[in-house]
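Journal club prep — side note

Before the paper discussion, L.F. wants everyone to see what a predicted structure for a comparable chain looks like in token form. Sequence:
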Amino acid sequence: MAKVPLVPIGRPSDAFLDASELDHQGRGSAEREALLRERRSLVCAGWGEKYVERVHKKDKLTTRERIELLRDEDSQIFEVGTFVNWGRNFGEQTSPAAGCVTAYVRVSGRWTMVIANDNTVASGSWWPQTPEKIERAQEMALRLRLPVIYLVDCSGLYLPEQSRSFPGRTGAGHIFKKNSLLSAEGVPQIAGVFGDCIAGGGYMPIISDRVVMTEAAYMVIAGAALIKGAKSLHLSSLDIGGPEVHVAQSGCADERVPDDETALKLIRCEVEKLPASAVEYYRYGVEAAPPHFPSSELSAILPCDHRMAYSAEEVLARLVDESLFWELFPDRGREVMCGVGRVQGLYIGFVTNRQGLLDDPEHRHAKKPGGILYKEGIAKIAEFSRSCDADGIPLVWLQDVSGFDIGVEAERLGLLGYGSSLIYTNSTNRTPMFTVLLRKASGAGYYAMAGMPYDPVLQLSTPITRLSVMEGRTLAIAAFNAKLTDDFEIETQDPEERRRIESEMRAVEERIEEDMDPYRSASQMDTDDIVALDELRSWIELFAETSYQATGYRRVKNPRIWSLHDLAAISRNRS
């Protein structure tokens, strides 16, 4: 019988970092993580206490209070899209988290995707990027077959910005197509309707399998104000589309309950009727276990300075159960590391970049920089990715990549072809893939290692992530190449022109540095969220459990017959 040969990796941090290094690197991360916590708090506050009080005066709960009551007591909420629209103003208004909370929430022992309008932000209106954020969450649920819970309290589009959220391929109407696709794939959808549900907000719950309405809720195509203007009728929105109408008459809702708390209890009961999680089955009798080395040390192990090296083994040792790992092809393409470990007792494949100077087997006595993709490493992780897909093993990509190797030799070796093979593989995989941008995510390396354009189920950044085609200084040199010598010096002898070119190059470099800020990426949905390094283990636990929760929609081989065993056997024979 083929066994998964997990072996111990990693060392205590004091064996490779002295106290001063641990302190220095830890302080650098601590500042960024404090900023992350501060900004999360600002987002969670919505439009502030005044609007919280306004909700409470209506005898309703705020959206985040509803989610707290909905979740299992012993579980963590994993919010995604926290920083969508961060730093953007719409006239004099802001839209924290695009006025919508999307989160992985465990309910009645099952992971679900909760999509909830923030009723403290313009009564749950949809802003620019709100539809895209909702659709992204629906896509995550579809890929993992997670039940979707809608907590609907939505007064429709934020009308002053309607031109940026109503039309277009991913505009507000695309939400309802996603509702339909989830339904077509048999993914359970449950809606709680808690208040204003006008226009799109009214359509959102209708395709759900179960719809619960509180006495304060209504669902209407057009609200009372619009009907009064159009038809001169004096009615309230509750008269037009309240629970009396939709539960007792139209049949558009299933249950009528007195208040928010009762609705949430009923939703929990509905989730409990669904098939239980398959996680225990796919543990194959193994208990979940924490890493042997604490994941809280990751903030000190990964230097904030992207030019400094660290050990990929030490990072993985703080992410996988008991710090046990099976590395595939350890002696080939050493600029990348790939293999299998357990997380929460469940098998997960990992791919990550090694840093620092590495031996170059193709050139004796030579070294090559890590963090770059070379021919053999690209071929290695492409084959590993294909095998994980064949075996049904979920894949985590831990990116710290500067891009592909470049130059005459790289082209002669056919890197374009090898890179295309990797891109093809990651574009066609059906196994769940998750991407974490640890530090650098640059150039085509970001694409090839399952970056956002290649549809990972979820992509996370950290407070030290830098996402760009290339670094600011390098890009400035490329942009002004025609005005530089072969040694990248400004060619002109005119002092005034030299000063102008220097100033323009500096402006380009500074702008690119700003663009690489992870909050900029999260604001425009180029990454799903920002998480602290010491939170990575808990997020990868979520990856594992959500990947294995549902059954029957993808192939999951038992570990005796993995393709990976064949690859390992062939590799040993060749060496």
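L.F.'s comment for the group: Residues 19-44 form the longest helix (26 residues). Keep this in mind when we get to the figures.
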